[in-house]
Amino acid sequence: MKELKEILENIEDSYSDFVDAICHYAQKKSTRLEELLAYLKANPDVKSSDVVKFVSDQPDFAEDAAYMQVG
Predict the structure, then answer these.
(1) How far is Cα 48 from Cα 70, in angstroms, rounded to an integer?
(2) Which of 58, 27, 69 is nearest to 8 (CA)?
(3) By C-alpha distance, which of 40, 34, 5 is closest to 19?
(4) Which of 27, 28, 51, 69 has a CA that sits 20 to 30 A from residue 59's CA?
């Protein structure tokens, strides 16, 4: 997780809430961490929005999404 946090902090337009949110997502499953690290290492010039899109496009992202209930 330390490696992921360092990489995220070094993204050109990084900000603390972004780093915290991505780390929170990654810590729930080891496969998430592995996939994120592979993506970031393969794409060293990504922006924060690219990482957010990558995470949102993951098949298991909906597991963590909060849904508003309309009643």
Answers:
(1) 31
(2) 27
(3) 5
(4) 69
